[in-house]
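User: Hello, can you help with two protein structures?

Assistant: Certainly.
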Amino acid sequence: MMIINPEVVKMFHYISSQNEEQKVSTYHGHLTCRYGYGRAMKTALQGRSGQDFLGVHIKDDICNFVVCDGIGTSNQGNSTTRYLGNTLMDWLDSTIDWSSKEFLSYMEYIPVIAMKELQNPTPLDTMYICGRIELPTLEKPIGRIWMAWQGVSRLRFWRNGLEVSQYFKGTMRKEEWWSISEGPLGGSPHVYQSRLEYGIPMRLQVYTDGLHDLDPIHERLPDEQIQILLDAPHTDGLIEDAAFLELEW
């Protein structure tokens, strides 16, 4: 029997390895996802793991993502960012309460779980940005974007070609981060939520400070130019680890 128009679920899943570089790559689905990862040159030469983390999961019109930027120089920092990154990916996929209060409570609770699962981990810190995009469709013309963060990783948002990142800039604070032993430090997580309307093109860009050369650039760069920044030939390699994520719909 022939099955006509079978329902195909489009899925994409990527978690940075932290032990190797990821060339700029693109996934095309209901939204377009570009991603890349690079270790600092010093880290790579010493054969150590990068401290930044990038995770993204797309299933049809739903996208969850996490970017973490480890603080400090300890080689064990990668385990902290990976633990928080994977834990937040699980939370984004399962939570039903998107309030600021609930997210703060969860971020305060994670250290309790970590102490048991990691058996008294080294007290290290990380900055992070996480989010969930529920795309609008013809059947459901109003979607949603939800994001939360602490620290100075970059969060940039374009609506219909115009950058509208002003709200985020005042909340990117170097004195705020998350500790695997204490939870949020320096302040509470910042949470942003907005509706998404069908038919309005949008672009979201998230990256860690290793790619600070992107800061003054407003136009969409081709893959090759993003890769040049990740390879950093002008400085003989990245000075800091770098994680890059760009989502367009």
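That covers the first. Now for the second protein you mentioned:
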Amino acid sequence: MLELDGYLLAPPRAQFNLAFDTYDTWCLLLPTAGSFDYEVGDAHGTAKFGDMVVCPPGGTLHRRMRTRTSFFHARFTTELDPPPGGTRVRDLDRLRGNLKLLEHADSAIATHVVTDLALMIRRTRSPLDPLVHSALTYLNEHYASTDISLTDLAAVLGISPSQLSRRFRAVRGITPVAYLRDLRLQKARELLTETDQTLQLIAEQTGYRSAFYLSRVFSAQTGQSPSEYRRTSRV
């Protein structure tokens, strides 16, 4: 299904060695922390954690770091035909688990991880339930509000909470509540690494009622306190 030609799990750096490159094989590039701008054919954007950028054989990938960034890069051949350009994946916990496996991986494990990443991209690009699309749009626009609930979101969409959870999980693989939690935590990560704002200010911008509550949720989900994450991510 997939043959891995090479991969690199790179520590934080200020810039890529090359501003662009053309590959004979498929290429996958994703940030593990920080962010970078990319361009592949007509597709372009900014990639942060949760985004994966694919360049097809013969294509040219342009990239430029916006912040100090660590990243994963892989070259491979496959019949999976992942869609080129940038894709925001749905299951961030699954992505984190894959990246954790790479820390001490042999070639067999790395091949498994890259195969799973390619499958995640394909699944994400599959046709989307219009109601789930509306739910995603609402959550991405209102995640900073502390008053979002599953019941309120279902009422906005004109559907029962149980139906919303079922349809959302069928498309995204997680519940709306879990998606909102991951989204808020990712926004908190970005503010911790890219700004010097206090934890209280970050909490107010990411939907948490207090710095204490943000710290408790952050530590439970990531295994690090916000201060530890800020310190280690800026190395």
